[in-house]
Amino acid sequence: MTADPSPLFRITRRFEASPERVFDAWLDPARARKWLFTSPETDIAARRVEIDARVGGKWLMTNPCEGVELEGLGEYLEVDRPRRLVFTFAIPALGPDADRIVVEIVPDGAGCILTLTHELLPPEYHDATANGWGKMFDRLVEVLVGS
Question: pTM higher than 0.85, yes or no?
Answer without folding.
Answer: yes
